[in-house]
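Let us begin with a simple case.
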Amino acid sequence: MLGAVAQLGERLVCNQEATGSIPVSSTKLGSAMIVAKYADWPSWLKIVILGPNALLLWFIAYPWFPKSKKQWIWTGIAIAYLVAFFSVMHFVFGL
């Protein structure tokens, strides 16, 4: 068994009382799991995760794809606006 062990004590006389201790090592944030940043992931893992999700998105979104040239133009305008908006939010405001 790895890790710290908690101590628990109980005293029963007239008044019931229970006491215990929490090991310091068990209260550290992030000690249970280490998560690698996305940039550090190997390429094969990114493909394994993103590939099936891209296919799923295609099958879900296909019925809503623009059918005419005018619809494609408006879709392009909307996508350009969203890219500009989120770029400003990220690079200017840091959100």
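The second case is a distinct protein. As before, the sequence precedes its structure tokens.
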Amino acid sequence: MAARKPLVINGGQVEQLQAGDTLDGASGANIGQSTVDFGATPSDMATVVVTGQAWVGFSSIIVAMVADSSSDHLSAEEQLIEQLHVTISDLVLATGFTIRVHAPNKTTGQYKVNWMGT
């Protein structure tokens, strides 16, 4: 099963957002998906720097969540067991930001993270 994309209601229709989509409205929203890699040795932190995001400002609001993926080891239930926490930091004007994923019980492998920001 492919990673799930965020769902939104747009003009009365439920739509699945794709990478690079924007929403109608005064500020619009930008979405994407990035991969963090904890590596082969158990680790409690993984980061990825997202670049090429000209819309990012110092007051941008960016939210992110680990994507449900049955191709790896990350069903919704397994996400709860892993206790993964996603944080957005290091906003760089007209450039991008950093995604940090913390796994307090340590984990391995790659995880996809869906993000949306304005």
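Helices lie at 76-82. The two ends are 29 Å apart (CA to CA).
Keep these points in mind for the review questions at the end of the chapter.
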